[in-house]
Amino acid sequence: MTPPTASVARRPVSRRRARARALRTVLLAGLFVLAGVGIVLTAPLFGEAVNQFTLPLAYQDVIREQAADKHLDPALIAGVIYAETKFEPRQSSAGAEGLMQILPQTAEFLARRSGATTFTVADLATPAVNIAYGSYYLRYLLDRYHGKIALALAAYNAGEANVDRWVAAASARGAPLAIGEIPFPETRDYVARVLQAQRDYRSTYPTELGYR
């Protein structure tokens, strides 16, 4: 027969273990709740960080201003910047400058055409000036090619002389120039990349680019 003292001795131990298990359960539940709250609170920040890494955006105020002034889609301006420099201004091996990679001779042509009197090539290193000139150039090319975005982008990349020649050859065949018929692979890829980036910026940054 088990001595009564042994039963009495085990009972407090069992109660302590039960209380400890209950406490662990409560603590684990609390940790899960805190983790869930943390995920909810940090998810938008994480999403923004991912967006900035994969599809960066900066100078959105300037982009919106220039888009309104030049009657352009702000996502198109952002798409060109993305394709040119991914918002990291630099000078190319060909001498193109800044966010939108404007050649000095192109900028001087645009300055004369727009009536600017104080422009210097060094100004292209200033993001706001660079975006203004790049946007003006896009507007000029869109007007020149009757609103055809693909042709304007092809000219932005390969020059007007090349695009004029390609368009003339396509017209001689009795058809408009299609993106897939652009002879330069780099220009073909450039046009497709900008158009995709335009769609991506419109859907990813609707507030920042002024769509709502």
Give a short summary of the structure.
The protein has about 210 residues and is mainly alpha-helical. The protein has helices at about 5-55, 60-70, 75-85, 105-115, 125-145, 150-160, 160-170, 185-205. Helix 6 (about 150-160) packs across helix 7.
What does this structure look like?
Helix content is 69%, strand content 0%. It has eight helices and no strands. The model is unreliable at 1-10 (pLDDT under 50).
Features:
212 residues; mainly alpha; Lysozyme; 69% helix; elongated
What's the helix-strand series?
HHHHHHHH
Number of helices: 8
- In CATH's first tier, which class of the largest domain applies? Mainly Alpha
End-to-end gap: 83 Å
Summarize the biggest pleated sheet: none
What would the average pLDDT be, to the nearest integer? 86
The SS-based structural class is mainly alpha
> What overall geometry do the principal axes of the alpha carbons give?
elongated
Tally of distinct domains: 2
Low-confidence stretches: 1-10
| CATH overall fold name of the largest domain | Lysozyme
C-alpha-based Rg, rounded: 30 Å
β-sheet strand percentage: under 5%
- Helix content, binned percent: 55-70%
**Overall CATH architecture of the largest domain:** Orthogonal Bundle
- Beta strands, count: 0
